[in-house]
Specification:
Layout: H1 4-43
Length: 118
């Protein structure tokens, strides 16, 4: 039969270890929550009023470069008519009209080295 004194000591030690473990977990959780609120306060930016550096800044649109293409034989004084307002289709030339460029042949002089054999 077990000694009642030993049983009581074992029960007290188990309760002490269990309570210490629970206290450690609760304390660690409280410290973690305190650290989280401090970190949140550190990393949350405070609202700063916006200061306009250039309040009188004005952006103006610049006119784009415009190139007017005319057909052969047209002069600069073209009367405005409804047919002229239709879109003009500009296409590249037919492949038969395009001539291939003449090949350029570059020759380098051949320099022969003279070796003397003894």
């Amino acid at each position: 039969m077990a000694n009642p004194d030993r049983t009581r000591k074992l029960l007290v030690r188990s309760a002490l270890v269990t309570s210490a473990t629970i206290a450690t977990f609760v304390g660690a959780q409280n410290l973690a929550m305190l650290d989280a609120t401090r970190l949140e306060a550190m990393f949350t930016p405070t609202p700063v009023p916006v200061v306009h550096a250039a309040p009188d800044l004005v952006i103006q649109q610049a006119a784009p470069s415009i190139i007017i293409l005319r057909r052969a034989g047209q002069t600069g004084d073209v009367a405005v008519n409804p047919a002229a307002s239709l879109p003009v289709v500009i296409q590249p030339p037919a492949p038969a009209e395009v001539a291939a460029p003449a090949p350029v042949i570059v020759q380098q002089p051949i320099i022969q080295s003279s070796r003397s054999s003894r």
